[in-house]
Amino acid sequence: MKRLLTAELRRAAARGITKGALLLTLLVALFALFGTYRQVATMPSEAQMQQDFKAVHDDWVKNHVQNEKTCRETTPKDVVEANPGMCEMQEPTKESWFGQRLTIGQQARDVRMGLSLIVALAALMLGASLVCAEFTSGSMMTWLTFEPRRSRVYATKVIAAALFGLLPALVVFLVDVPGLWLIGQSGGLQFGPGEQSTYFASFLRLFGVGAFAGLVGAALGFVARHTTAVLGAAIVYLIAFEIILASSIESMKRWTIGTAVTAFVEHGHGWTTYPDCYGPQECKPIEHWLGFWPATAQLAVVATVITLGGLAIFRRRDVG
């Protein structure tokens, strides 16, 4: 099986679609850096924020007593008595005036959510094309001539697909990990408490997403036998379940692959839903949380079911 796997890896490395998928991933990774740079470039610098805040604070020091007096004189007495603090001009702070300054970790999280989708799609395409090309060209029969045991052929191809699914994640890791860090520092952003370790760990978990998508793509390739069919099924699932169904039935969001992938990459994922409220009762938002290990288990179950299903179909279905 080792020789089969080595031959499969060499063949996959020489294919044009492998280079194309990695090039596409590289372009998206660079575009993500460009978008982040544009966003950071529009943020005020620390010196500009300090200058603006000084002007605001000086105005408060100079005028807040007179403004409070004017407020009390022009506001009806009963209104002031009902709201005793309404005319108090609180001393401004940098946090209240500018809000919480964005950190590198928060910036990277927003970018990483999009990059995880690109890694998954590129790995899915690599895994599916690795298998479907064999059926399209008829070379699957040649493989079974040299190795008639279908289980070994199947295992070789899904393992190779999982390994090649790591490549899009590698491209993103090499480009965006240092790139986002440098762009953030150039704009005066810093890591928040504990963010530096999670920054690297979250990007490393993209390798798990790539391996998962490559494995699933190969298994679906044995079922559909056409790369376009696999990609079409993925798009239908994305639109029907991840977007429409998860938006229409809020309880379904917990069980989508997209939510599980986000929770896996970010080591937990939270979201908020709003119940339908009728009448005078207070409507309170409901907070949801999916932890890292439940998300990992969910993805493992999905990968296992699809892989075993692909094997069962490959063992029983005519190759020709």
Protein architecture, described:
- The chain has 14 helices and 2 strands, in the order αααααααααααααββα.
- It has 320 residues and is mainly α.
- It folds into 2 domains: 2-43 and 103-316, no CATH class; 46-98, no CATH class.
- It has a two-stranded antiparallel ribbon with strand order 1-2.
- α6 (104-137) packs parallel to α11.
- The longest helix has 34 residues, at 104-137.
Key phrases:
320 residues, mainly alpha, two-stranded antiparallel ribbon, 14 helices
Describe, in short, the structure shown.
This protein is mainly alpha-helical and 320 residues long. It contains 14 helices and two strands. It starts with a helix and ends with a helix.
Low-confidence stretches: none
- Helical content stands at over 70%
Count of helix runs: 14
- Main sheet: which strands, in order across? 1-2
Estimate what percentage of residues fall within beta strands: under 5%
Structurally, how many domains make up the residues? 2
Summarize the biggest pleated sheet. 2 strands, antiparallel
- What is the 3D shape? elongated
Order of helices and strands: HHHHHHHHHHHHHEEH
Query: If you compute it from the alpha carbons, what radius of gyration comes out, rounded to the nearest whole angstrom?
Result: 27 Å
Q: How many angstroms separate the termini?
A: 23 Å
Overall average pLDDT: 84
* Content-based structural category: mainly alpha
